[in-house]
Design goal:
Elements: H1 4-18, H2 24-43, H3 70-73, E1 88-90, H4 97-106, H5 113-126, H6 142-149, H7 164-175, H8 178-187, E2 189-195, H9 201-211, E3 217-224, H10 228-240, E4 247-249, E5 260-261, E6 267-268, E7 275-279, H11 301-314, E8 324-330, E9 336-339, E10 342-345, H12 346-355, E11 359-367, E12 378-386, H13 393-412, H14 421-428, E13 434-435, H15 457-467, H16 472-475, H17 478-487, H18 493-508, E14 520-524, E15 532-534, E16 546-551, E17 554-558, H19 560-565, H20 571-576, H21 584-593, H22 597-610
Parallel strand pairs: 1-11, 2-3, 2-7, 3-4, 7-8
Antiparallel strand pairs: 5-6, 8-12, 9-10, 11-12, 13-17, 14-15, 14-16, 16-17
Helix pairs in contact: 1-5, 2-4, 2-5, 7-9, 7-22, 9-22, 13-22, 15-18
Length: 614
């Protein structure tokens, strides 16, 4: 059995892993508070131990067993302050962390060993990741090391626009330190590949880095994509960007062993490159699925895509394997899911499988709103680095530390979006990206099908009215009648009624007084309870979901160009990559399934800086 000191040390480590990064001012307050409490504790006489400990001792019952109380019901571990361990870390610092710490420092409650342990964990987490004695080997001075590893979001003017090209130029010119700029310039070239490529977001991020003028460009060696029309689009991108060495394969499974056959029937050796981009298929992982499957279950689409990637790595020698892996998936990958009678977490399974192949890294939860885009799109991203100095615990720990430092760099690439960012994007789009009338290629809204049994949505809408205490007068105003006339040309009657009822509920709460004078966006087409309306950011773009924008007193249907712009591919990027040539439906399909381009280039730059031997 471990001693009390060892147990408190383990709890302290788990506590420090979960607490968010605190401002320097809060850490100073806690330090003063801690030193004051320590001096008070040293002046008091030590209490005498008389008899056995009481059964109601904090955190443990009689005999050393944890009581069956509130702590176990919430899933906490031993002691009172040990939260659940998780392998995900938020890039955005918590806005409530400072308030909680100031409340603790101002609290006059008596000090106990447990409270001192928690406060010490806060202080340890608040310290910079790399102290003066642990400077990175690439930093030439103390000031440069602290600037490069502070991990704080950028404070100051952001990019001129939130498109991919402008955002990348802003990163290179403003956010990167001179040492980091020099390291990127010295690399000159790097190679990469994409599995489940879609529209080739990694190739677009590489082009944006080349256009920034840093002197570093990428060569694409491999692309895999199952869809035929997306294969043709990727081939056109390779021709436009002069990626002559890129070979397109139908499936990642085609790369299990050499020789490999591309979509043109030509044979090739296994492709070898430096950085691998891969989007894990989310069909069996998403919360919307009714039949979830394990990430390691090759019978599902999600498990098949990931296992095919593992088979590709197994077919290469250790030195030939990619030096960095950038993975992306929906947030449910990091959530506990019940699969086949047991509970699992996909991020833990992926990290374990990659560790067996010599990779160490971390997962982060990243949102497009923190990278200059007015769109709500939260995804799980990861960066895994191949070990270069052995596969022992010490070598893996060192590589994991370098991956964590790359996460600090990505934090610096964050830029907040203001409340008017969505309206600015709508005004800046020359073509609008909006449809005041039905799209020429789009079919008119289909009529409701005549079913043998009555439709369920009228009763659900009636229940919604009763829940929010809405009367017929509230939803039949002159303003809402105008909204119905505009929306009837684009939406079904069920969708129009759901939009009106949600706007009426917001108006009753005083959150949205007049839709004609407001700018907001919402997703429509699902049930009435899932309609999401926001004036600050656009809902998460999905491939087949209808998105409505109320702008300057008009109800407009968002087309594919606006969906692409919300992913960072705006007017200049759309011209460069010939995205205008696609139909609106395919443009939205591309945007709904692709990487967020701004996040993709942020992970690309951080991966290049983390690799020492490209």
């Amino acid at each position: 059995m471990a001693s009390d000191g060892e147990g408190s040390e383990k709890t302290s480590r788990s506590e420090s892993e979960q607490i968010q990064h605190l401002p320097k001012r809060d850490s100073q307050e806690l330090n003063e508070c801690l030193s004051q409490e320590t001096s008070e504790a040293s002046s008091k006489p030590a209490p005498k131990n008389r008899g056995k400990p009481k059964a109601h001792a904090r955190g443990r019952g009689a005999g050393g067993r944890a009581p069956r109380g509130r702590a176990q019901e919430k899933g906490r571990g031993k002691g009172r302050g040990a939260p659940r361990k998780s392998c995900i870390a938020l890039l955005s610092p918590s806005r409530h962390a400072g308030k909680r710490c100031r409340a603790r420092s101002a609290d006059a409650a008596p000090s106990t060993p447990e409270t001192r342990r928690i406060k010490q964990a806060n202080l340890d987490w608040a310290r910079p990741k790399n102290s003066v004695g642990e400077q990175s080997s690439h930093a030439t001075s103390e000031s440069e090391a602290s600037a490069a590893n502070c991990g704080e979001p950028h404070v100051g003017p952001g990019p001129q626009t939130n498109g991919l090209f402008n955002y990348t130029a802003w990163l290179v010119d403003t956010v990167l330190t001179p040492v980091e700029q020099k390291r990127l310039a010295e690399m000159e070239t790097f190679s990469f590949g994409e599995f489940c490529a879609g529209m080739g977001s990694g190739m677009m991020a590489s082009e944006a880095l080349r256009r920034s003028g840093i002197g570093c460009s990428g060569r694409c060696h491999c692309l895999t994509e199952l869809s035929t029309w997306k294969q043709k689009f990727l081939q056109s991108q390779c021709d436009i960007l002069k990626q002559d060495n890129a070979h397109i394969f139908k499936s990642t499974g085609d790369l299990a062993k050499a020789p490999c056959t591309d979509i043109h029937g030509k044979l090739h050796d296994l492709p070898v490159f430096d950085i691998l981009f891969m989007g894990i298929v989310c069909v069996d992982i998403s919360r919307l699925t009714s039949r979830p499957k394990s990430l390691m279950d090759a019978s599902g689409a999600s498990g098949s895509s990931f296992n095919q990637c593992l088979h590709y790595l197994d077919g290469l020698s250790f030195e030939q394997r990619p030096k960095a892996l950038v993975l992306e998936c929906v947030r449910a990958l990091d959530q506990k899911r019940a699969v086949d009678g047991h509970t699992e977490r996909g991020t833990a399974q992926a990290a374990e499988a990659l560790a067996e192949r010599g990779y160490a890294g971390k997962f982060w939860q990243v949102d497009a709103r923190h990278f200059g885009l007015p769109a709500k799109r939260s995804r799980v991203w990861s960066l895994f680095l191949r070990c270069t100095k052995g596969l022992g615990p010490r070598a893996m720990a060192q590589r994991l530390k370098e991956a964590e430092s790359a996460g600090d760099i990505i934090r610096r690439f964050q830029v907040s979006t203001g409340r008017g960012c969505l309206q600015e994007l709508l005004e800046r789009m020359s073509r609008g990206g909006l449809e005041a009338e039905p799209h020429p290629e789009a079919k008119p809204p289909p009529k409701e099908k005549q079913q043998k049994t009555p439709a369920k949505w009228p009763q659900r809408h009636q229940d919604f009215k009763e829940k929010h205490k809405l009367s017929d007068e509230d939803i039949n105003t002159e303003s809402f009648q105008l909204l119905r006339r505009q929306a009837n040309a684009m939406l079904r009657p069920r969708e129009v009624d759901a939009l009106v009822l949600n706007l009426a509920a917001l108006r009753a709460k005083g959150k949205l007084l007049d839709w004609q004078s407001s700018t907001f966006a919402c997703s429509i087409g699902a049930s009435i309870e899932r309609v999401s309306i926001s004036s600050a950011s656009f809902p998460c773009v999905q491939p087949s979901m209808k998105h409505i924008v109320c702008y300057k007193g008009k109800v407009l249907l968002a087309d594919g160009l606006l969906c692409l712009a919300l992913q960072g591919l705006q007017e200049s990027e759309q011209r460069t990559f010939n995205l205008h040539d696609l139909s609106s439906r395919r443009q939205q399909d591309m945007a709904g399934n692709a990487f967020t381009s701004n996040i993709c280039v942020a992970f690309l730059i951080s991966a290049l800086l983390a690799l020492n031997d490209i």
